[in-house]
Amino acid sequence: MAPSKKLNWHTTALHAVQGANLAGKTSLVTGGNSGLGVETVKALATAGSRVVLTSRSVEAGNKVAEQLRAEGVKGQIKVMQLDLADLASVKKFSKAYLAEERGPDLLILNAGVMACPQSYTKDGFEMQIGTNHFGHFALTQQLLPSMKALRRPARIVVVSSRAHEMGSIDIQDLHYRHRRYTAWGAYGQSKLANILFAKQLAKNLEGTNVKAFSLHPGVINTPLTRHVYGTGFAGWAVQNLVSIVGYPWLKSPAQGAATSITAAVSPDLESHSGVYLHDSQIKVPTKAAQDMDMAAELWKETERELAEAEKKLTS
Ligand SMILES: NC(=O)c1ccc[n+]([C@@H]2O[C@H](COP(=O)([O-])OP(=O)(O)OC[C@H]3O[C@@H](n4cnc5c(N)ncnc54)[C@H](OP(=O)(O)O)[C@@H]3O)[C@@H](O)[C@H]2O)c1
């Protein structure tokens, strides 16, 4: 059965979580300090989950946690530092998380960077695929045994984008060392990688307690656009102008987080592991995003490059 038709473009995260009792569960949201992440944390905590909010900046994360408590959100919110563009940080985070927590029951891979100038992570990965795909892949690898050990339904939700339609995977040159870099091409590649990762993960996890999903959240005016509109006063002005002119087409962050919440809690999705969602409904992504040969190749290459980077870290 697909998710209720009552869930659609207008649905907010708080609406999508209605009816879910997450008491006794632990959720982890990457990039929980901004945009869709804040609304995702809010909805999960409102439904009773203990939420681990990860943020590059603990200060920014704490500010959001305090703000949500002030709004009356009752669930426990714990802030932990995590930089996905640094595998040493991912490793340090996982170690600290696993020392104190179980699972998580719900792992929401939400953090992302969009259309930045050509740059590289600490481990030498192109910044967009490095953060959006490699960082989340490494985190998942490290937390998965603990998720399986829960022996109860658990889910991994990968926040992708319709921008996957603009990208293609070049397995020989994932990091733009040989082809010409374009900010949108690299974003598209990273978001296509997100969908292929979720599909391969779902396949690998068949018969286990853990399911995986990916999604497009809609178009929402968040700080994600910083590399597009610029920063400072000019960026602020463009962002506000876009909010006004784009009002009929833009979702609010609360609406933007609804599809992540549907993927995380909808009981109707339990037998649909691997699907891609849009507006809280199952959608068919592009052909490239359904290519399971490429999903397997990308998985192998990601594992290989992460193992190589790990060797450098420990040498
Ligand atoms: N907004 C949209 O229209 C839209 C459309 C399609 C898909 N998406 C996807 O939705 C997700 C959330 O985006 P958003 O719109 O909520 O953007 P946002 O407000 O900019 O939030 C992105 C989050 O990711 C974090 N992040 C960036 N680089 C990171 C790193 N190296 N390590 C750890 N965290 C990092 C950011 O941290 P800082 O605050 O420290 O920068 C922030 O918390 C992204 O995956 C994005 O690709 C958004």
From TrEMBL:
<protein>
    <submittedName>
        <fullName>Uncharacterized protein</fullName>
    </submittedName>
</protein>
<dbReference type="InterPro" id="IPR036291">
    <property type="entry name" value="NAD(P)-bd_dom_sf"/>
</dbReference>
<dbReference type="Pfam" id="PF00106">
    <property type="entry name" value="adh_short"/>
</dbReference>
<keyword id="KW-0560">Oxidoreductase</keyword>
<dbReference type="GO" id="GO:0016491">
    <property type="term" value="F:oxidoreductase activity"/>
</dbReference>
<dbReference type="InterPro" id="IPR002347">
    <property type="entry name" value="SDR_fam"/>
</dbReference>
